[in-house]
Amino acid sequence: MRRLVYLLFSVAVLLPIGAQAADILSRDQFSMTRFASAKLVYLDFWASWCVPCRHSFPWLNAMQEKYGDEGLVIVGVNVDPERADADRFLDAYPAAFTLVMDPAGELAEQWQLQGMPSAVLVDAQGNELHRHIGFRADREADYEALIKTLLHRDDAAPTTHTGETR
What we know:
This protein is an alpha/beta fold. It is built from five helices and six strands.
């Protein structure tokens, strides 16, 4: 079942990379407190025109199914200006994870994204742990290994940021 949450930001605030997700996501209707039981939140920024996004959705669905009981929450953040574009994409590539619509791109701007898709992984306290740009099928095992590592880590040290390209 899809859950759509609409982002209605009244003020655009630029925050540096590594800023706490709770500071960004608590604006208006969307908050990290919504995911209080999550150990790891995987923010996946996507758009209907993004070819790698078409390949990432089946994998994201599988990861949510496989690791949801361990504390993984995947949140897909769509940046299409037109809702109809996102709906057409979702008809072809259904999502079994939470979806957020960001038609003005304010959340994407706050996270200072540099490409689509982009993934930002944050812990339960809203600390950014990792980010990468793009999605490659030949890296799925690496992405999954990172999820497993972050779900089972004991310390609060963030991982390195990667500038992976599509």
